């Protein structure tokens, strides 16, 4: 697929699934996978696009899973948010090792570890050519990092939110469970919600819908996946206000 109508993007938010950082492992971060993703993001940033990131924490801890085993949900969600901070620090380190300027901005206050989130300051970082990594989700329990990604994308006035995930886009059913599922090239937010397509939670999709934020879903494990999607190439699904 090549879609020049998507271009050019000046400022984008990339949401990285925590689970996607595990590679073949069952927990944590695979440094090879992390390195490939960071190289890909660095290439896009070097082309002049302002890039900010939201990273998940599912490779380390999920509040809902812990609550299912008896843990208090709110405590579990705070632990999940801390997991995203670990991932954010690992990402920042990988960027800095490549001499790519990157900073971590946290929705939970931990000033010795990361800068607290201040909208205008984060925009300033982007304008100064830094990759901004948003950590700790929204800072609130009962939310997800997909919702944090949609929220920060609007706050940063991004052109698009790109969700880097484990599958090639949005399908008629979860393709990891249903081999007969078919992929959409383009969908409206309303269709995602009415068809119950669980690629993102409904809160994230509703927030994008109410604020007309285009979303692109693509597979983070394909080579140079982010660079290719930014060039309108490769396989992906766009979620938009109206399908043409
Ligand atoms: N209709 C669907 N289309 C695409 N993916 C779906 C769909 N329904 C469920 N999924 C699942 O949603 C996941 C995307 O969410 P993501 O945030 O990357 O993963 P997780 O939240 O599990 O870390 C995919 O890996 C896929 O298995
Ligand atoms: O605004 C937020 C974002 C995340 N979380 C917690 O952090 C965990 C990790 O985030 P998520 O599941 O979205 O990560 P991903 O699926 O992208 O790896 C979640 O399970 C929640 O427990 C939260 O409470 N509020």
Automatic annotation (TrEMBL):
Family (UniProt): Belongs to the UMP kinase family.
Positions annotated to bind ATP = 15-18, 58, 62, 165-166, 171, 174
Q: Which CDD domains match?
A: AAK_UMPK-PyrH-Ec (cd04254)
> Where on this chain does UMP bind?
57, 77, 138-145
Q: State its role.
A: Catalyzes the reversible phosphorylation of UMP to UDP.
Q: Which residue positions does the secretion signal occupy?
A: none
Q: Major place of localization?
A: cytoplasm
> What Pfam families is this protein classified in?
AA_kinase (PF00696)
Ranges for the Aspartate/glutamate/uridylate kinase domain?
10-219
Protein name, per record: Uridylate kinase
Which PANTHER family does the entry link to? Answer: URIDYLATE KINASE, URIDYLATE KINASE PUMPKIN, CHLOROPLASTIC
Under the heading InterPro entries, the entry gives: AceGlu_kinase-like_sf, Asp/Glu/Uridylate_kinase, Uridylate_kinase, Uridylate_kinase_bac
- Reply yes or no: does the keyword Nucleotide-binding apply: yes
Gene source species: Entomobacter blattae
Q: What is its EC number?
A: 2.7.4.22
- Molecular function (GO) terms listed? ATP binding; UMP kinase activity
The protein's superkingdom reads Bacteria
- Record GO biological process: 'de novo' CTP biosynthetic process; UDP biosynthetic process
User: Keywords for this entry?
Assistant: ATP-binding, Cytoplasm, Kinase, Nucleotide-binding, Pyrimidine biosynthesis, Transferase
Give the record's free-text account of how this protein's activity is regulated. Answer: Inhibited by UTP.
Pathway(s) served = Pyrimidine metabolism; CTP biosynthesis via de novo pathway; UDP from UMP (UMPK route): step 1/1
Catalytic activity of the protein: UMP + ATP = UDP + ADP
Can you supply one Gene Ontology CC term for this chain's record?
cytoplasm
The places in or outside the cell where this protein is found are: Cytoplasm
The gene it comes from is pyrH
């Amino acid at each position: 697929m090549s879609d020049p109508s998507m271009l050019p993007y000046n400022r984008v938010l990339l949401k990285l699934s925590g689970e996607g950082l595990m590679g073949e492992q069952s927990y944590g971060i695979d440094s090879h996978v992390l390195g490939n993703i960071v190289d890909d993001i660095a290439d896009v940033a070097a082309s002049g696009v302002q890039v900010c990131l939201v990273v998940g924490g599912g490779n380390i801890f999920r509040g809902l899973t812990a609550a299912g085993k008896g843990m208090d949900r709110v405590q579990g969600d705070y632990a999940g948010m801390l997991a995203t901070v670990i991932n954010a620090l690992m990402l920042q380190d990988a960027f800095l090792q490549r001499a790519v300027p990157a900073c971590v901005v946290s929705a939970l206050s931990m000033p010795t570890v990361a800068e607290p989130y201040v909208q205008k300051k984060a925009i300033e970082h982007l304008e100064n050519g830094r990759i901004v990594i948003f950590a700790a989700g929204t800072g609130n329990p009962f939310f997800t990092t997909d919702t944090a990604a949609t929220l920060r994308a609007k706050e940063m006035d991004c052109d698009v939110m790109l969700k880097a995930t484990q599958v090639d886009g949005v399908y008629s059913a979860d393709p990891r469970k249903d081999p007969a599922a078919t992929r959409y090239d383009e969908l409206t937010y309303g269709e995602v919600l009415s068809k119950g397509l669980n690629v993102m939670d409904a809160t994230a999709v509703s927030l994008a819908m109410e604020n007309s934020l285009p979303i692109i879903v693509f597979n983070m494990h394909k080579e140079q996946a982010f660079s290719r999607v930014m060039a309108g190439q490769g396989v992906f699904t766009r979620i938009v206000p109206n399908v043409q």
